[in-house]
Structures are given as structure tokens and as C-alpha cells.
Amino acid sequence: MLTLTAKSEDETAKIGATLADTLGAGDVLLLSGELGAGKTTLARALIRRRAGAPIDVPSPTFALVEPYAFDVPLVHVDLYRLEGPEQIVELGLDDALEVGITIVEWPERASSFFTGPRLDIAIGHRRGEGRVITLTPHGESWLRRIEALASGPLAL
Fold this sequence. Notes:
Layout: E1 2-6, H1 9-20, E2 28-32, H2 39-51, E3 65-68, E4 74-78, H3 93-99, E5 101-105, E6 118-126, E7 130-138, H4 140-151
Parallel strand pairs: 2-5, 2-6, 4-5
Antiparallel strand pairs: 1-7, 3-4, 6-7
Helix pairs in contact: 1-2
């Protein structure tokens, strides 16, 4: 587990962009936190970095799924409006989980669906200090990457 403090929106975005450089096919990131915690800020920075350009990145709150056709396909998912865990099957995420990069906001709405290797990213506020971002790896590949990030680009 790696805990970081982001004192501004720009610092949150930098963490997202840094994570983007480590991603490949089959990677899953689960972003949790209260409304306004910074989940979408982190996801947007990550997506823009993968795009290699300052593209428009809408929040998938109403569409639920926003796909991106990058070198490795990426889907940005927001489960806030999910009516029930059974609805997740209708979103067609099975393929995305295997061949692309999947970023999920509000994963707790369908937690039983995300059981494989993944990176859990919890974002919260610490009064006077900004956002606290906790990266919890699940799976050997994620563990190695988080260890490398902790001693490299995200070193405290």
C-alpha cells in the first residue's frame, strides 16, 4: 500500500498522469471516495496522458461508460447511477477487462464483479492537507509497480 498527499488538483492530476505511464492491457483501476474527492480529476489526467494530447474527457456519470480507442483501448466507467449489481453485465465490461485498461469510479456499487488483479485507489480529504490518495495493489504485477513508483516517480 502507498499513501500520497496531493495538496492541489494539479498534484492529483500528476499522480493520475504518472499512473498512466505504468498501464497496459488488462489493467483495472478502482477509484473510490466521496463526491468531489477527486476521482474524476485523477481519471481525466490519466486518460489525457494515455491520449498524448489535451483531449476533452467527459465524466461518464450519465453514459456510465466512456470508451477511448487508444493504442491499448481504455474505458472509463462511473457506477454511481448503477441501479443494481446485475446491471453491470449489461455494460459489457467483460471484454474491456481482458483487452484494455479499465478505470472504474464508484466500484463499491458492484464490488463482487472486480475480484481479479487490480489497483484500488481511495481518495479522501484530510483537513488542511489536501487529498489523501491510497494505492492498494491486488496481484503480484500491481505490487511490483507500486513498489517501483514508491521509490521512483511518486517517492515521498
